[in-house]
What we know:
The protein is mainly alpha-helical. The chain has 35 helices and no strands. The protein has helices at residues 2-10, 14-40, 45-60, 65-69, 74-93, 98-115, 122-133, 140-147, 152-159, 168-189, 191-194, 202-221, 244-262, 267-279, 300-318, 322-327, 341-365, 368-378, 383-395, 399-412, 416-428, 432-439, 450-463, 467-480, 486-497, 501-514, 519-531, 535-547, 556-568, 572-585, 590-602, 606-612, 631-649, 653-666, 671-689. α3 (45-60) runs parallel beside α17, α25 packs antiparallel against α26 (501-514) and α31 (590-602) runs antiparallel to α32. The protein is elongated and about 110 Å long. The chain starts with a helix and ends with a helix.
Amino acid sequence: LSYLIDIRIGDIRPFTFHLSNLIYHLVNIILINTLIYILVKPENIFDKIIIALIVLIFAIHPVQLESVTYISGRRDILFSFFYIIGTIIFLLLMPKKKITAIFTLLLFTLFSTASKEAGATLPLFAIMLYCHINKNPVSVKFSMSHFKKDISLLAQITAKLKFLSNKIILTAGFILIFAGLIYYLVSMAFPVISLDFMGGSMITHLQNCALFLFKYILILLYPSELPADYSDYSLTFIENPLDIKGLFSLTTAILLTWFSINNVKKRWAAGWLWFAITILPMINIIPHVERFALHYLYLPITGLSVFIWGALNAITTYFSRQRYLKKFHLPACCQLSKYRWSIVVLLLFYIGFLWKRTEAEIVWWQDDIRFWEHTIEIHPLCARAYSNLGSALVMKDRLNEAKTAFQKAIEIKLIPQSYLGLAEIAVSQKQYIDARVALEHIPENHSILEEKRLFVKGMINLGLGDITTAISIAEQLTSQSKGFDGGYFLKGKAAMAQSLFDKALALFKEALLLSPSSRRNQLAYIGALVSSGRHDKALAFLESGFQTGLWKSDDAERLNDMGYIMMISGQESEAESVLVRAITLDSNCIKASLNLSSLYYRQERFKQIIELEDKTFKMKNNNGNKDQLTDEQQDYSRFLNNIALSYIRIGDIKAAKRYLEQALSVWSYNEDALSNITKIDQISNDYKAK
């Protein structure tokens, strides 16, 4: 729903989505500040400064980048928004309007859980803070007296359950133990479930959960290197139930939580429970696919900050008591409370360190390719990072590098997404046999990849000339997956192959409506406009893309498209300036060099064509391998043929022959080059005969 609002406001520009994420984050900063004020009730300027610094840590901590910078990370921001505002409203309404407060809490629990499943812990979190504010232990008796007037029947029923402890937390603990026992019995009955246990058993699983808890604390306190992906290989799992580290972590976590429950009125206890409750769904108590991620820390970070503040405050208060000083015969200057402002100084230094780390991380987030390369530097065996790097390289049309990244990902771990990436690259390079081989490694009816697998299969059939099968697959895609643009795109490509340009244009338009940001759909739509003779509309579409930020101003490929359309529509001077700019920006843009050389040849500017070679990337020979030929190699061969023709026109036959041989070494099936070199050989033979 929030994404739909963004599209309504700013269309599909990424800037709109990023701005919305930032606005939601700023709102959460204000809400966090409000909640801490309600929780702590500052009595002096020192408390207010500490609160401001804690809120600042929440705002700029480097782990927040993953939630705020990722457009899809909004789930963490929105879940936290409903989580915090629901808690604030509950705490404000509870003293006077209990029924309204309860229903409001349930409503915001629904909203928060709809954003992310972790929102289900909101009632427990809100009740814990309510008990802290009211300075009363959490007891069933206390709850009975408070809710007796409003929910008398429920109070009477609960009052009869005297066999339970008068502590609500013990009741909750009993429920958790019972649920754990049921889960354990189910896993014994269905062994496939136990495969998700970290370490192989429930005991080791809980120990690993505790280790995750303290690993998160370490990352929050000292965020040195923050890779975007934590795969299982980078996480150490305990398999021995008697492992000292695992037992110590689990025992410490349980004791901290127990002491916090029994001292809920203490500030440090409220902080620890804040952290523990909000991080609980994220530490794999119930095993899930993404075992470890930085965006899980978006909300828990503030709870840990409050816990540390409360703990330091408790320590300084204890060691400042007169009886403690008298016991150890210490002078009054040893009262730690006198040095509490040093905490502010230390916090300022720490915030400076966090900001430097955030600045360093922002550098990697500015470019998706550098981002995944940085992750690979930290964790060289992260298969998913290689797979994501391959996808990022494909978006930049760096297909050979993307192919290498996908192959590396497969070497580390057999990831279906990488095989799909290889298949898509092979299709784009017209290597349909290789694409079919890659596609065989993706299981049929894969829950995530089935649509894309069928799409690539259809593209393979279309490339091999089986238009009927391709259309059948496209019909299947459009009927089964109405929100998937690939079916309409495949139909459009089939219509283009049949020269039904108007039909193709309508189909590509449907694909664009479903996925406006897809470069594949955009380029196909432009191609259909050009093929159907609508050059003005194609130019207008390209220009609007530059104006709205759909394409960057230095996108050489799109500038080449503009130049080509201008050239075939007779706007030669404009076409020349645009194509020259494209080549200046990117010498690897072979199509721009080919189009500009064709324009110069039409204008009989042969010397400019020859000079153009120095500005163009030199492509390696293909050794005549037709099956591994790319579009860029074909274009480069045609470009060399244009240079050869220019040398022929100025009378340098030897140079012309040299360039034709070079063109054929890149693409041995270039018919124009073959025809021209045959003519040159015939002219040379006739000259020798004379």
